Amino acid sequence: MTQELPVVTRFAPSPTGYLHIGGARTALFNWLYARGRGGKFLLRIEDTDRARSTPEATEAILKGLTWLGLDWDGEPVSQFERKDRHAEVAREMLANGTAYKCFSTQDEIEAFREAAKAEGRSTLFLSPWRDADPSTYPDAPFVLRLRAPREGQTVVRDAVQGDVTFGNDQLDDMVLLRSDGTPTYMHAVVVDDHDMGVTHIIRGDDHLTNAARQIQIYEAMGWAIPVFAHIPLIHGTDGKKLSKRHGAVGLHDYAAMGYPASAMRNYLARLGWSHGDDELFDDAQALEWFDLGGIGKAPARLDFKKLEHVSGFHIGRMENGALLAELDAFRAEIGEPALTEVQKARIEPALDALKSKAKTLPALLDQAHYALIERPIVADEKAAAALDTVSRGILRELTAALQNVTWSRDDLEASAKAVGETHGLGLGKIAAPLRAVLAGRSSTPSVFDMMLALGRDETLARMQDQLG
């Protein structure tokens, strides 16, 4: 009985910019698959493109993954720092005959392709050095090419796409090492995945053709081929490949818009993967349910209405302490200071009411505006219109009535109702001027929720400020 290898997945972004939402979903799928099976989730920074790779981009990627709540095992691996290992494997392939030296220049390759095109032949480059006698080698720069099979087929046995077959006559002898001795991306990826013990490669289906070429390197080295799972890309609402014209494409955009990380994990998991009809779930459920068989073949579409629905669900079920921490993290993301202890003390009693309606963190903060502002409260134009002479007189009576009541919702409502009845007014007519003095706005949470959250002293102080 053979024992199954522990699952090892990886996320391998190029540090040339921010963490794209498609990359974030790929990372999440790899994390869920590994963590749900007690395996390892590794991180590799594919920084071989030295002209475009930056430390700032690497930092942005790490920050994005951390914000999303994805942890990785060990230190991130730099692909560039492993270039000597990549070259070593290429030389092993040269020694075992699965690679060869090619001295063809770029001009010669271009001339071959132009002639082939003119004659109606395949423009796939066929190197004249593939079977050349080493005694004929010139003293000139060369690249190392894979001696790929010319006949037969290479089959990618994909856990999402099924078996995908490529004719070997459509795959060229790709370059492994350039003439300056640096490895190509295609070669480096295979060596890194092998050395890191990766068992499952979960990535975008734009890499499907790459998989066929990379399998040939695995076979040339006699290495075990990992399980491939190529997932469909994310499209915009118009069905076209996601790009900046669709708005937010970077994970940091979603953090700045105030979607909690737990909501993003839930939403991204459902972009291309399903578990029955389940739309709303927590991390424990996602880790238990996630499998490769649940990934569809069709591109997923970004849907902001659905994201808001998911976000509202997660905000609504969040514990108050965790929600306050989320609010601080959001404010830091947009460059605002953390909530003060006084602000937190005012917001917390109102959170149960606020979070049941808010779809995003800024929407919740907007409803909690009354708890964040300090005296004296300045009413906006619409709210100030409710503070006419009659209303001020009623508020003066209510202020006196509230001096000694028990600060409970029932007693506050009873006092307001009693004052209103003496003037033939219902609670609705008293609420508008109360909103103006407590929050400076005409649209607020319940006036009694605000009074309970602010407490007796702050509520009465705000009322007295306006009444003079």
Distance between the termini: 86 Å
Number of domains: 3
Shape: elongated
> Percent of residues in helical segments?
40-55%
CATH level 1 name of the largest domain: Alpha Beta
Please identify the oligomeric state. single chain
Question: What's the structural blueprint in terms of helices and strands?
Answer:
Blueprint: E1 8-11, H1 21-35, E2 40-45, H2 55-68, E3 77-78, H3 83-96, E4 99-102, H4 106-118, E5 143-146, E6 153-158, E7 162-167, E8 175-177, H5 185-195, E9 200-204, H6 208-221, E10 227-231, E11 234-235, H7 251-256, H8 261-269, H9 283-289, E12 300-301, H10 304-317, H11 320-333, H12 341-347, H13 351-355, H14 361-367, H15 369-372, H16 381-384, H17 389-401, H18 409-422, H19 427-439, H20 447-467
Parallel strand pairs: 1-2, 2-3, 9-10, 11-12
Antiparallel strand pairs: 4-5, 5-8, 6-7
Helix pairs in contact: 3-5, 5-6, 8-10, 17-18, 17-20, 19-20
What do these coordinates show?
- With 468 residues, this protein is mainly alpha-helical.
- It folds into 3 domains: 81-231, HUPs (Rossmann fold, 3-Layer(aba) Sandwich); 246-368, 3-Layer(aba) Sandwich (Rossmann fold); 381-467, Arc Repressor Mutant, subunit A, CATH 1.10.10.350.
- Helix content is 47%, strand content 10%.
- A 3-stranded parallel β-sheet has the order 1-2-3, with helices on one face. Strands 4-5-8 form a 3-stranded antiparallel β-sheet. It has a two-stranded antiparallel sheet with strand order 6-7.
- A hairpin with a 3-residue loop joins strand 6 and strand 7 (162-167).
